[in-house]
Design a protein that fits this description.
heterodimer; A: mainly alpha; MetI-like fold; 2 domains; flat; B: mainly alpha; 13 helices; 0% strand
């Protein structure tokens, strides 16, 4: 895309008077000053330097929102037509920045304290103690190792999703019916799924699946054995998210140029040949997008684990998110938990950046 | 006529091969259909079972067990109890209402903010400090990578000091943040597909850029916005992690309610099944009737 110069040109003759410019600037700086001074006063009140203040910080939030509104309005007042353009992006940008950047900085601070919500002392900076603790925390490393397994499971999901997309793209009757049915698992909440499948269908005593296994003379264990438990979690997660990849791949299949496929048929290619030589290579970009997005979703995996196994047996099914969730729920260990989360974020950013780099290099390689 | 040609040896081979592939395709389709539907069927039938039926593994209503309302009575929804006052039903409806309000407002807010940003990014060039358009887009989309767990604990503390803990507003803000990148991703694709000439014509006719956006572009992009809205709605409705951390009694949503029931020992299967069915039913209905939009939303951006 051409990024220099607007795609939609507008010619405007804005005569913005100095008074108007001053008004805009006063609005922004005035509300910023109000917000900042309220914050300082409230901080002083919380530190018990002064005796009057608000019960919570919420008035400061209102002041901040006032400042944000003033900033948006001032764009139009000061910059005229150009400001109206900025107004498209500015609200979303302000929203994301204030809800992400500020908490992230705050998280960075917490992660180097020994803050435990159960202790009365509040946060005390403790240098690199949390890092040392992390280094020796075998459960955290175990959770990271599990994440590797979980991410690798995406490849199997991809194969299944591709097969299903091909099926739906074939000449079949009742295509819409099958599409709706195949989409359904994605609609269900992971929590409900973890009860429906994990806790009832695969219940060891009465679940229908264990009964079926007994019928064939086996002895069912699902969440007692580490390997099987991990596989079960993968399967449940796959069950919900295969439709996601399937639909992206189906959209890709339907956008394939018909002529090429017909030409290959005329040239006498068998079904497998035309898939291997034409469909799959043409589908590569879509596949890569689907897999990358799926991996990003996979890195957030937690709901099913929290509800079905809570990480057991012996941490075999723990994902990083579920581990940190329990670190907070069971021990209220905010400082240490946040450090683990920040380390995880750094690892994810490195991993995804490398992945994207690799993918783009691999895609540009002449075939 | 045709029968004559089908007698031929090679023709017969082709027909049998065609039939074989038909059978293979439909077998695969039916197997996966069972994989998809069986858990849902199991949950819904279990909600009408009594304990002995669960133990015996009876599956088909009226044939091997008699449907009873016991499961639904435990959340106060059954023909017998519907007229009476019931605390469990109030509890359930409160959660249901929370889920509805939170997911709809978050999805609306995300679609509003996201469409504006996506439109701006697809039409004008910006420069915020060192950031140009592609950087701004990347900044928005990169939020998708951010795992919820990183934000969860800081938000817990921030919300505590802001008095937003256990409030709907708090969850709405977070959910909006969570789905915003997806909305921007879908909408950017939508706006790229709308020819700029339309807006240029509108500008010539005397509309401002906001006028052109509201009157010309929005109606065209509406299906895309509906797709983004539905997809956001689904994600927000099902979200569990933030809801579990940031709400307790006041603003907690349906998934939290379902999860809190599973924690107790000696679960009543029928009542859990009724609760799960009630939690998934709205989205199953959405899926059946609005499937077109969901698919459209997910396909956007996948195919360039």
């Amino acid at each position: 895309m051409n990024t220099d110069g607007d795609l939609l040109h507008t010619v405007t003759a804005d005569n913005i008077s100095d008074a108007r410019k001053r008004l805009g600037k006063t609005m922004v700086w005035g509300s910023a000053l109000l917000c900042a001074s309220m914050a300082v006063l409230q901080a002083a009140y919380q530190a018990e330097h002064i005796s009057i203040g608000f019960e919570t910080w919420r008035p400061i939030l209102y002041a901040y929102m006032l400042w944000a509104t003033a900033l948006c309005l001032a764009q139009v007042i000061v910059n005229g037509e150009k400001g109206k353009r900025t107004l498209f992006v500015l609200p979303a940008a302000l929203f994301v920045v204030s809800l992400v950047i500020f908490p992230l900085l705050f998280a960075l601070y917490i992660s180097f304290t020994d803050w435990n919500l159960a202790s009365p002392n509040g946060p005390q900076p403790n240098g690199f103690d949390n890092l040392y603790q992390m280094w020796n925390d075998s459960f955290y490393w175990n959770a990271l190792k599990n994440m590797v397994y979980y991410v690798l499971a995406v490849s199997v999901e991809y194969v299944l999703a591709f097969a299903l997309a091909l099926l739906l793209n074939a000449q079949i009757r009742a295509r819409k019916f099958f599409r709706v049915v195949f989409l359904l698992p994605l609609m269900l909440s992971p929590v409900a799924v973890s009860w429906m499948i994990g806790k009832s269908m695969f219940e060891v005593r009465f679940g229908p699946v264990s009964r079926l296994i007994r019928e064939f003379g086996g002895e069912p264990t699902f969440f007692g054995n580490p390997e099987i438990a991990r596989f079960m979690i993968m399967a449940m997660d796959a069950w919900t998210f295969i439709p996601f990849m399937m639909i992206m791949l189906l959209a890709g299949l339907q956008a394939l140029p018909r002529e090429v496929l017909e030409a290959s048929k005329v040239d006498g290619a068998s079904g497998w040949q035309s898939f291997k030589e034409i469909v799959f290579p043409l589908m590569l970009p879509v596949s890569v997008t689907a897999v990358v997005i799926r991996i990003i979703f996979k890195l957030k995996l937690a709901d099913v684990i929290i509800n079905v196994t809570s990480g057991g047996p012996g941490g075999a099914t723990d994902s990083v998110t579920s581990f940190i969730f329990r670190e907070y729920r069971d021990r209220s260990n905010v400082g240490y938990g946040t450090l683990l989360a920040m380390v995880y974020l750094v690892l994810i950013v490195i991993f995804v950046t490398l992945l994207l780099k690799l993918v783009s290099r691999w895609m540009e390689r002449p075939a | 006529m045709t029968a004559i040609f089908k007698e031929h040896e090679s023709d017969r081979r082709v027909t049998s091969k065609w039939w074989a592939s038909r059978i293979a395709i439909y077998t695969a389709l039916f197997i996966w259909m069972i994989v998809c539907l069986f858990p849902i069927l199991w949950t819904i039938t279990t909600s009408f079972k009594l304990a002995p039926d669960v133990m015996k593994g009876n599956l088909i209503p009226w044939w091997d067990f008699t449907p009873r309302w016991k499961g639904w009575e435990s959340i106060g929804i059954s023909p017998r109890l519907i007229g009476e006052v019931s605390t469990v039903r109030e509890e359930f409806l409160k959660r249901f209402w929370n889920s509805t309000i939170i997911s709809i407002s978050a999805a609306l807010l995300a679609v509003l903010l996201g469409s504006l940003a996506a439109y701006g990014l697809s039409r004008f060039s910006y420069r915020f400090g060192f950031m140009k358009n592609s950087d701004i887009s990347f900044f928005f989309l990169s939020q998708m990578i951010l795992p919820p767990v990183v934000l969860a604990l800081p938000f817990l503390i921030l919300y505590k000091s802001l008095g937003l803990l256990d409030s709907r507003i708090g969850l709405i803000l977070l959910y909006t943040l969570m789905v915003l990148p997806i909305v921007i991703w879908i909408m950017r694709d939508q706006f790229h597909g709308i020819p700029i000439e339309l807006e240029e014509a509108a500008l010539v006719d005397g509309l401002g850029i906001w006028g052109a956006f509201m009157q010309i572009v929005l109606p065209i992009a509406l299906p895309g916005m509906v797709a983004a809205f539905i997809l956001s709605l689904v994600l927000c409705w099902n979200e569990y992690f933030f809801a579990a951390l940031l709400t307790s009694s006041n603003a907690s949503t349906l998934p939290v309610m379902v999860a809190s029931q599973t924690g107790s020992q000696g679960i009543n299967w029928w009542s859990m099944a009724a609760l799960s069915s009630a939690a998934i039913l709205p989205l199953v209905i959405v899926a059946i009737f609005l499937e077109k939009y969901i698919i459209k939303g997910m396909a956007a951006g996948a195919v360039k």
